[in-house]
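Hey all, sorry for the wall of text incoming. These are the two entities for the joint prediction.
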Amino acid sequence: MIKSAGSAATTTKPPTENHLLYALENTMPKYKLTYFNLKARAEDTRLLFAVTGQDYEDVRIEFTGYPVTGEFLDIKHNFLFREVPVLETEDGVRLYQSHAIARYVATEFGLAGETNLEKAKVDMIIDSIDEAFSSLVWYYFAEDDQKPIKFKEAFDDQSSFTNCMDSLERLLTANKGGDGFFVGDKLTWADLKFHSSLGDNIKRINPDYLKNYPKLSSLMDRIENVPAIKTWMAKRPETMF
Amino acid sequence: MPKYKLTYFNFRGRGEVIRLLFAAAKIEYEDVRIEMENWPNEKESGKFPFCQMPILEVDGITIAQSYAIARFLANEFGLAGETNLERAKVDMIADTLEDLVKVIYRVYLENDKNRKEELLKEAVTTKVPSTLAALEKVFIQNDEGFGYLVGDKMTWADLVFLAHTEYYCSEPFKQYGLLNPHAKLRALRERLLGEPRLRRWLNIRPTTDV
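and here's what came out:
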């Protein structure tokens, strides 16, 4: 397991049988995020912490592929819903479910939308991005001989993935011409989720495809030019996806 | 008073938690139901942001995604949780139940009889029992499970639970008694079924298979 706070990375043992004891033995930070050593469904939360400058403990469990083996199976029983990510707060609260966690953190820092209506737009975009992200996961997990098939399935111009990207480009454009952010006047969790779940992955595996979406492309640049995000992207571990 | 219009299929499915919210808050809305065969045509209208249902139209704005809609309405009606932390717990439970209902839907949607049976057996021996056991634990942590899933009053997490337990309590899941090991969750379901505003909706709503 890799545990890092700020820029120092240290390896630590996985939680012992008595996870509470382990937590007490190590001074509890304000926030502790535990996930696989992947971007996947926790990177939006990590980007939220980066952009707000909030310190947190970034615990990463070794990931060697799907189905999940190794370290995670040994410690799975410590997690109530047998899943990660999990966010622990200094008050001893444990939150599961990636979106519940990200929304909680985003709301604490005013990055979830200003009004109830804006929040709903953010939520709608988040859920749709997550559905599209699943297509990419199938590509990443596919055996080498299946990868071209999964690739085509994802990026075909009639695919649900493309349908979602079309909708996102439309929504972004509808927000004051599309030269800002998805919702309202400032960066929100929706922009960060797009970057981490879709934009970043598309740039890696099919950069030409992103050129079909000029507003989404320039949104990616806008996000990556935020100094705190630039810094985080330069120092974060390289991962499968 | 804003005018609300919900558009979804003539199913409970992903629309029912929204309808239960309107019922619990005793707020009027237009409950538009599109038949399956008319959906391809409707889709072309361009009013569905992600070409999917349900959508909620309010004050000229359209919101898509069932949980985005549910959370929006819950916040409007005071059924979302009182603090950011409570709201996060509501989200956590709703998302966990959503992961579970996907497994349930897969059983319903499978046409091959043998595969359907396989999926059913897998669901009732693994994902459903383990999730419900964890949910019972979370529930008991909240005032020993004598009230609602989160905080002191009903939230949309309870309504998701109610909507989804309808599947566990009907065919083909009924025979497995999935709620039987969980006394608090069973009692919660009974309590929700007895709430007058919910009861009224359950009595008058159209009967559908799913």
